[in-house]
Structure formats: structure tokens, C-alpha cells
Design a protein that fits this description.
The protein is of the alpha/beta class and 479 residues long. It is built from 18 helices and 15 strands. It is 38% helix and 16% strand.
């Protein structure tokens, strides 16, 4: 009996070890490094681990390296960041985690990783750091999903973990209300741009109050219409990580495992589609627009060979002198960094407002600036063949200019006459002059009031489906 038990224990130990194919360390700076755990059977998914410790120490065992077995068993590559402590200089830990993301994505092909399936997992103060990277870092180093364990979210020490706040911001930073607000990351969640998240914590956490931290982040994500899940276990207090002493350990791993398995992950070679636009693209009035807006429906219609991302921002204009120019937005910078193969541009509705259209003479040049930034050379003059020009410079990006849908009411001073008689002719002129695709949503969508919300401007659920159908048909026919 004893021999059998010993054999079983040995077999379990060998099996657990066998899940990890390779372990190594990479220095990030003279003071920081990352430890990599590559699985034997990679799924393509990777996670960057950020231990907690109140920004004063690193709890990198049960909140760090001890996660490697379970993650590698799932085929997930794992990278633990032993980051520099801030000591009041927040750029130190932020820089180390961002550098880790650069290394992981640059080495993705060698390590069997899908570079667009790299998430972050942070604990306590590490959860705060993970949320900073998720909300404030540039697209190139922003995670594709976030796992936040009992995270510090607020930098207001009155409702958070006092020492995490002080160590991250420093004494002077704590006196700056703007910094406190900015790095209280529930205030920095961006619609469509902040990655999907799962938050796991205990109701009886006495160190980091759940309501003003993890729940606050969940609320910000849900209010923005972003994908987010939250699991609150009855007991456990703070700091359990992957420790087997946590009463809900097995349930927690099951919850996390199911969430990871059910994420929609783009194929590494998927055709990237960027949806650029105003509130109609953004999904104004559509609850959880990340799943029910027109770009999300477009993803369903195009299928797994495409990767559709929503870069819409409400109220924005094509005009750079408009009240809210699109090209001033983070979403615009993200759209460029996305390096799209297909671009759907749906702007113009807000440009028709009197305060914006006074600069209408610059609409065409601003549209051309957007096009040339996305695809340099796309608007190089070409000889016309018939009524439509053929692009003079070969570009890999397919560009679709969408005319605005009809404005059935003059809500917010949006002017249907200017849309129909001035903006759309300019869009058609650019498409014809430079050999670009035009999607005439104005005609194809029609004047059906049953497809719009009561404001007469924004499509309802029926309307966004119609837009998605029109755009999907155009993209598929050009493939």
C-alpha cells in the first residue's frame, strides 16, 4: 500500500513538472527581471503576472511563481515580473511591466504565443499596477485581458490601502488631486479600449475595501459597456493568491479557468478590421455596446477569419477644427497602432452642426489627412479610368468611407440638409478621386423610423444590425 501511494505521489509530481517545458529569467533593468514558464503544450495564450506587496515588497510566491503549474497545465505561458518598487516614482514599476509586454509580444512566434492573446494578472497593489497598464498604457503594451485579484484601485488612501497609495504616488503625489483621480483607475476606464477583465476578491477583505476598489472598477467597466466579470467569495480576507488554504481555492480556479476558456480570442492571422466613427459606431444608447453594437455584430457576421475592433467615440468630428475632433482621441492613436487591414470610416454626422460646419471647407483635406495617416500614399493622385480612379500606390489596407445614415430629427443641431447636400458629395468625391470604397449608408439604411432611437439620430438594436449587414456585405464582396 505504501509503495503504491509513493508511486502515485511520484507520478503526480512528474506530471506536474512535465507541464512546464522551459523556465528562464530575463533581466529588465539592473534591479528588475522577469521569470518565464513556458508550457509543454502551448495554447497560444500568455499571462504576465504582477505580484502584490503594497508597493513596498514583492509577494512573488503564492501571488507569483506558484501559479506556473496551474497556468502551464492550461497551456498558458506565464511571465512573473519582479518589478522595481516605486518609492514615489511610479514610472519604475510601470516601465518594467510595459517592457515585459514588449518582450513577450516581440518573442511571441518563438515562444508559441498569439501576440494578441497576452493578458495581465495582478494581486492587491499588483492588481492596481495591472489596472494602470490596462487603462493608461499605450496600445502596443496594453494587455488583451485583465485578471485582478482583490485589487487596489483607488489612490485615495481614505477608501483604499493607505501604504499602496503613498508608495505609488509619493508624498507629493498624494497632495495632487489630479494624480489621485487619474491613478484611481476606475476613473481611467475607456469605452471599447480598456481590455475585458475578471475581478476576484473576498467580501470580508479588511485590507483593501472591495466596494471602493474592485467593485468600483467593475462598475466603471459595466457603465462603459465593456466586458467584465466579478466573483466575490464570502470569506477569505486578503492575500490568498493560489494558496490552498483559501476556502474557495478550487471554486476560484474553476471560475477563472472557465472565464479564460470562454474568451473570444482572435486568430493570429485574422484580417484586422478597424471601425472608426462617432456615437453611431461607439454604440450610443445600445446597452453593452461591446457585445451588441454594430462592430460587435459585424464581427459575428464576418466570422473568425476577421478581427473587428470598435474605435468609435461619441460626439466626434472629422473636422480638426470641430468641437470634438476624432483625430485628437486615444481611439485614433489605437486605431493606427492596430495596423488594420480593413478600415471602416463613419464620420460626418456631427460635422453638420453649425458650430462645426463653419469650417466645412476643410472637411476634404481633413479626410485626406486621416486616410494618409492610416495608409501612407493611398491618396497619391492617379489617372482616372472612367468615372473612378485607380489607386496609384499599392496599399494593403482596404478603406471604406461610409456616408452618414439619415438624420430624421435635428437633435443636437445635426443638419440633414448639410449631410445630404454637402458632406456626402465630398465623401463621394474623395472615394471616386482616389479609388476608395464607398458604402452609401444614407441610401441603404433608409428613412425607417423603426430603426432609430427616439432622438432620430442613433440606430436602435434593429438599426445597428442593419448597418452591420450593409458593411459586412461590402467587405465580403471585396475580399
Amino acid at each position: 500500500m505504501k509503495k503504491t501511494l509513493l508511486f502515485v505521489l511520484l507520478l503526480v509530481a512528474i506530471t506536474a513538472q512535465a507541464q512546464t517545458a522551459r523556465t528562464f529569467k530575463i533581466d529588465l533593468t539592473d534591479e528588475s527581471h522577469m521569470v518565464a514558464f513556458l508550457p509543454q503544450n502551448p495554447s497560444g495564450k500568455a499571462i504576465v503576472g504582477v505580484p502584490g506587496g503594497g508597493y513596498s515588497v514583492l509577494s512573488n510566491t503564492h501571488e507569483g511563481t506558484q501559479w506556473s503549474n496551474w497556468l502551464n497545465e492550461q497551456g498558458i505561458a506565464y511571465f512573473v515580473v519582479n518589478y522595481r518598487l516605486p518609492n514615489g516614482d511610479r514610472t519604475r514599476p510601470i516601465g518594467d511591466v510595459e517592457n515585459t509586454f514588449r518582450i513577450v509580444r516581440d518573442s511571441a512566434a518563438v515562444w508559441g504565443i498569439n501576440p494578441r492573446d497576452v493578458g495581465i494578472m495582478g494581486f492587491s497593489a499588483g492588481g492596481h499596477l495591472a489596472s494602470v497598464i490596462s487603462t493608461l498604457s499605450d496600445y502596443e503594451v496594453r494587455p488583451d485581458f485583465s485578471i485582478l485579484f482583490y485589487p487596489v484601485i483607488s489612490m485615495d488612501e481614505r477608501v483604499s490601502h493607505k501604504y499602496s497609495c503613498q508608495n505609488f504616488l509619493g508624498e507629493e503625489g498624494q497632495k495632487d488631486p489630479e494624480l489621485v483621480r487619474k491613478y484611481s483607475t476606475n476613473n481611467s476606464v475607456q469605452r471599447h479600449l480598456t481590455p475585458p477583465a475578471i475581478i476576484l476578491m473576498s467580501s470580508d477583505d479588511r485590507l483593501v475595501p472591495p466596494v471602493t476598489n474592485g467593485v468600483a472598477y467593475y462598475s466603471a467597466m459595466r457603465n462603459a459597456g465593456n466586458e467584465c466579470a466579478m466573483y466575490i467569495y464570502p470569506t477569505g480576507d486578503h492575500g490568498w493568491g493560489v494558496g490552498p488554504w483559501f476556502k474557495y481555492h478550487d471554486q476560484m480556479l474553476n471560475d477563472l479557468g472557465n472565464w479564460l476558456k470562454n474568451r473570444n480570442t482572435p486568430k493570429p492571422d485574422a484580417i484586422r478590421v478597424a471601425c472608426i466613427g462617432n456615437s453611431i459606431t461607439d454604440g450610443h444608447g445600445i446597452d453593452v455596446a461591446s457585445q451588441h453594437g454594430y462592430p460587435a455584430l459585424l464581427q459575428q457576421m464576418l466570422g473568425k477569419d476577421y478581427w473587428v475592433k470598435n474605435f468609435g467615440v461619441s460626439g466626434r468630428t472629422m473636422l480638426n477644427k470641430g468641437d470634438l475632433p476624432y483625430m485628437n482621441e486615444t481611439a485614433w492613436r489605437d486605431a493606427i497602432a492596430f495596423n488594420p487591414d480593413v478600415v471602416i470610416i463613419k464620420l460626418g454626422t456631427n460635422d453638420s452642426k453649425p458650430q462645426n460646419w463653419q469650417y466645412g471647407a476643410e472637411f476634404k483635406q481633413d479626410l485626406l489627412q486621416m486616410l494618409n495617416t492610416l495608409c501612407p500614399g493611398i491618396t497619391t493622385p492617379a489617372k482616372k479610368k472612367g468615372k473612378k480612379a485607380k489607386a496609384a500606390v499599392p496599399v494593403k489596407t482596404q478603406v471604406y468611407i461610409c456616408t452618414p445614415i439619415p438624420a430624421l430629427k435635428a437633435s443636437w443641431n445635426i443638419n440633414e440638409e448639410i449631410i445630404a447636400n454637402e458632406i456626402i458629395p465630398l465623401q463621394k468625391e474623395v472615394a471616386n478621386e482616389y479609388g476608395l470604397h464607398l458604402i452609401d449608408l444614407h441610401s441603404l439604411f433608409g428613412n425607417d423610423s423603426e430603426k432609430v432611437q427616439p432622438d432620430g439620430i442613433h440606430p436602435n438594436d434593429k438599426g445597428v444590425r442593419r448597418i452591420a449587414e450593409i458593411v459586412a456585405d461590402a467587405v465580403k464582396n471585396q475580399k
